[in-house]
Amino acid sequence: MSHKQNKYIQVEYIDTMPHSDKYWQKEEVLPRRELEEMQLKRLRWVVRHAYDNVPFYRRAFKNVDIHPDDIKTLEDISKLPFTTKDHLRENYPFGLFATPKERIVRIHTSSGTTGRPKVVGYTARDLENWINMCARCLYMAGIRSDDVFQNMVGYTLFTGGLGFHYAAERIGAMVVPSGTGNTKRQIRFMLDFGTTAIHSTPSYALHIKEVAESMDIDPSEIGLKIGCFGAEPWSESLRRKLENSFGLKAFDSYGLSEMNGPGVAFECEEQDGLHVWIDHYIVEIVDPETCEVLGEGEKGELVLTPLTKEALPLIRYRTGDITFLMENECSCGRTHPKIHRIVGRSDDMMIVRGVNVFPSQIEQVLMNIPEVGDSYQIVLKRVGALDEMVVRIEVRDEFFTGELSDLERIKRKIEGSLKEEIGIRIDVELVEKGTLERFEGKAKRIVDLRNTYISQ
Ligand code: ADP
Ligand code: ZN
Questions:
Q1: In terms of domains, do 341 and 405 share one?
Q2: 286 and 424: one domain?
Q3: Residues near ligand 1 with C-beta < 6 Å?
Q4: Cα 208 from Cα 222, distance rounded (Å)
Q5: Measured between alpha carbons, how far is 345 from 211 in angstroms, rounded to an integer?
Q6: pLDDT for residue 3
Q7: What pLDDT, in 10s, does the model give residues 189-212?
Q8: How many independent structural domains does the chain possess?
Q9: Cα dihedral value 32, 168, 317, 59, nearest 10
Q10: Are residues 380 and 255 in the same domain?
Q11: Which domain holds residue 22?
C-alpha cells in the first residue's frame, strides 16, 4: 500500500502515557551504551538514505571518496563531509529533500535571521518524532496535564509555535495558542485562564514583565510557574531576572528549523546545561576555522547529524552556534549528554580591539546591574580602522533623576563592570526608558553601522 493511501486509513491509537512521573519516554534514561548502539544503526540508515535519495549527497560523498558502506563505527562519522547553511540555500526550496513530495505533510522555514530562509520538510513520521522530543522537553520542565500552557511564539512558518503546541497537547496540558503580540491581551489571558506555563523568546518575556508593570500588575502575582525560553541567545543573569520577576522557573530551550525546530536540547531541573536527545541527533563540536573535532569542554561550533529525519536528512550540519559539551553526569538521571547554553552565533561574534565578544556576554553584565532597565542595544561603528562598540542602555525610571551627576555615576559604574568582565573599555550611552525597540520574537540587539565610515 502506498504511503499516500496510508494517510486515509484510521491510524492506530497513539499511546500518550508518560513513561514515569519524571520521564516522558523511556529512551531518556537508556544506558549510554544502548543509546550508542541505536545511534550507529540509525547513522548507517540516514547516510544510506541521503546517498540513495539526494543527488547533492551522492556527489558530496563521491567527492571525498566515501560510500555509505564505509560507516562501520560511530567514529566513522568524521569521514563524512559537512553540510552548511549555504548548501541549503543553494538548493532552495526543496533540493535536499530525500522523499517525494507526496510523503511530505508539512513545511516550515527558518526565521531568516542570517539571510534567505531555509525551507525544511517533514513526513508524518518526522512530525511524530519531533512532537515526542518536544514533549520530552516540556515534561522535563515539569509541565503536566493540569498545566495551562500559553504559547507566545509565531504560529505560522516559524517552527516554535506548532512544535511546542502539539507537544503540550500530547502531554495533555491545556494549550492557549496565543501567538505573539498584543501584550496586554496576553497578560489578561494569563490571569483569566490561569496560565501556569509560558513559552516565548526571553526578550519577549522581559517585555511582558514591563507591560504588566505598566498595567500595575505585579508579574509575580500572575501565577506562572514554568517559563520555556529560547530561539535566541540569552544570559544567566537574564534568567535570574525573569525568575525573580515572575516567580517562575526558567528553562533554556534550543533548536533550529533544520533539526525539526525546538526540542533538540533543553534544560532539566538542574538548569545547568541542555540535554541533547542523542537517540535522534549525533552531536559534534568543531573548530569553526579548521573544522577539527574538539573534545569535551572545548568551545566551538555545534555540528548536528539528525538520525531519524526522513524528509530532510542533513549530514554533519554546521549550526553556526557556539557552545561546548559538558562533562559531568546529570543528577536528573537522564543519560543524554548536555551542551552549555549557546554563547552566540558565530556570525554575531564581534571583534573589538582584538577581543572576541558575544552579545550574550554584554547582557550577562548588564542584567546584574540594578540601575539597568529592560532594554539595551549594541551599536557597532568603525572609527578610522578600528571597530568601536557603544552600548545603549535604558535606565530604570527610579534612577533617571535627570541629575547629570547621577547619570554620569551610573554610566561610569556600567562601563567599569563591562571593563572588568569583558576586558576592554566599552562606551555606554544612557537613554530614557521606552526609547529602544521592543521585540515579540527574536530580539535584534546589534545595530551595525560599520559600513558607515566615520573618520576620526
Ligand atoms: P534562524 O537561523 O533564521 O534564526 P531558526 O528560526 O530556525 O532560524 O532559529 C534557530 C537559531 O536560533 C539557532 O541556530 C540559534 O542560533 C538560535 N537559538 C535557538 N534557540 C536558542 C537558545 N536557546 N539559545 C541561543 N540561541 C538559540
Ligand atoms: Zn539532567
A1: no
A2: no
A3: 110-114, 230-233, 252-257, 319, 321, 342, 345
A4: 11
A5: 29
A6: 46
A7: 999 999 999 999 999 999 999 999
A8: 2
A9: 100
A10: no
A11: 1-345
